[in-house]
């Protein structure tokens, strides 16, 4: 009977000892409540509690990676986007994380989601894509300020992915392509402008010494002959043929041309009508006082069926031209 009592006492002692002794790891802290009142945090290492009177809640101090679910966001310029992020936080106040919030992990996740939608909804799409560092800092600061009373320190918030509609992606691709073409044209124009300035300077230098132009001709011929072309290009300077061109120009403008002097003078034709004369053929007065030009077309002979030529009126004045009726048909 005494042995049985001793065994019972030993078992109860071990039960009390097991209920009063706790071992906390280095990254853990224990928040102790005695009869419902907060006694503070304990740990790490061996911690003694009063059995059935003290209660302890373990809290981990390690950094937690919180994955924020994808959120549907409408940016400031009315572009729909789907954004997800990740937040890193750790508990720095075990007492506040237990006393001031029921579940600090769930609470931090919800506040991170609402803050993500709020902050990104105020930014434009270009800002969302190009200024992520600034947006990450804004998110981290806002979430940390809201979780600080809970004893939670948010250290990093990173936007992982931004999904936009396919139509918007194609439009952005066209915009980027147009921007690259614009830059290429600007660079090409700038290069041509600089090259024109250099060529102008080179022309000024070459104009001071004409021999440099000949050397340039020879260098160009050497460059052409490198490819073993069958075509031979020989530059002919204008200075070599300029005297000949000037000589031809002076000869053409003066009256000393032997070819021109050898030509017979062309007779002048007067338009004044001469005195009327009636010849044996019946044709009255010549049209001019001078001889007919050598290239003049001779008059066509009258047809046999034509009327006989009319005789001149003897009373007509010597300087009066014949009337049309007195002329043959070929002369009318």
Summarize the helices and strands and which ones pair or pack:
Elements lengths: L1 H19 E4 L3 E7 L2 E6 L2 E4 L5 E7 L3 E11 L5 E12 L2 H6 L4 H18 L3 H6 L1 H16 L4 E12 L2 H43 L2 H15 L12 H16 L4 H5 L70
Antiparallel strand pairs: 1-4, 2-3, 2-5, 6-7, 7-8
Helix pairs in contact: 3-5
Kindly summarize this structure in a few lines:
With 332 residues, the chain is an alpha+beta fold.
What would you note in describing this structure?
Among the domains are: 12-59; 64-164, Band 7 domain (Tetrahydropterin Synthase, Chain A, 2-Layer Sandwich); 166-222. The strands form three sheets. The chain has a three-stranded antiparallel β-sheet with strand order 3-2-5. The protein has a three-stranded antiparallel β-sheet with strand order 6-7-8, covered by helices on one side. The chain is α+β, with helices and mostly antiparallel strands and 332 residues long. The termini are far apart. Strand 2 (28-34) and strand 3 (37-42) form a beta hairpin. It is built from nine helices and eight strands. The relative contact order is 0.06.
Radius of gyration: 59 Å
How much strand? 15-25%
Helix content: 40-55%
Mean model confidence by pLDDT: 77
Text of the CATH class of the domain at 64-164: Alpha Beta
Q: Which architecture of the domain at 64-164 per CATH? A: 2-Layer Sandwich
Overall body shape: rod-shaped
Q: Strands of the largest sheet, in order across it?
A: 3-2-5
Distance between the termini: 179 Å
CATH topology of the domain at 64-164: Tetrahydropterin Synthase, Chain A
Q: What is the H level of CATH, i.e. the homologous superfamily of the domain at 64-164?
A: Band 7 domain
How many helices?
Answer: 9
Element-by-element helix/strand order: HEEEEEEEHHHHEHHHH
User: Which regions contain 5 or more consecutive residues with pLDDT less than 50?
Assistant: 253-262, 269-297, 301-317
The number of strands is 8
Report the structural category. Answer: alpha+beta
The major β-sheet equals:
3 strands, antiparallel
């Amino acid at each position: 009977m005494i042995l049985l009592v001793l065994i019972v006492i030993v078992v109860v002692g071990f039960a009390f000892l097991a209920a009063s002794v706790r071992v906390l790891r280095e990254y853990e802290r224990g928040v102790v409540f005695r009869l419902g009142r907060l006694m503070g945090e304990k740990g790490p290492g061996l911690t003694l509690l009063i059995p059935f009177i003290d209660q302890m809640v373990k809290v981990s101090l390690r950094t937690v990676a919180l994955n924020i679910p994808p959120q549907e966001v409408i940016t400031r310029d009315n572009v729909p986007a789907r954004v997800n992020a990740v937040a890193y936080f750790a508990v720095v106040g075990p007492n506040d994380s237990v006393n001031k919030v029921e579940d600090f992990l769930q609470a931090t996740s919800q506040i991170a989601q609402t803050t993500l939608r709020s902050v990104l909804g105020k930014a434009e799409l270009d800002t969302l894509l190009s200024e992520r560092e600034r947006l990450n800092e804004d998110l981290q600061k806002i979430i940390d300020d809201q979780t600080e009373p809970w004893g939670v320190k948010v250290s990093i918030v990173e936007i992982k992915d931004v999904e936009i509609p396919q139509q918007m992606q194609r439009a952005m691709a066209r915009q980027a392509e147009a921007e690259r073409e614009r830059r290429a044209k600007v660079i090409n124009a700038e290069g041509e402008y600089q090259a024109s300035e250099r060529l102008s300077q080179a022309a000024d230098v070459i104009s001071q010494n004409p021999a440099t132009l000949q050397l340039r001709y020879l260098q160009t011929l050497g460059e052409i002959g490198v490819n073993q072309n069958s075509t031979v290009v020989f530059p002919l300077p204008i200075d070599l043929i300029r005297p000949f061109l000037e000589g031809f120009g002076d000869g053409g403008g003066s009256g000393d041309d032997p070819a021109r002097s050898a030509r017979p003078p062309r007779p002048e034709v007067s338009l004044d009508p001469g005195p009327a004369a009636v010849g044996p053929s019946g044709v009255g007065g010549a049209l001019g006082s001078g001889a007919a030009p050598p290239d003049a077309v001779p008059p066509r002979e009258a047809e046999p069926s034509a009327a006989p030529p009319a005789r001149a009126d003897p009373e007509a004045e010597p300087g009066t031209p014949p009337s049309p009726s007195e002329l043959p048909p070929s002369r009318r």
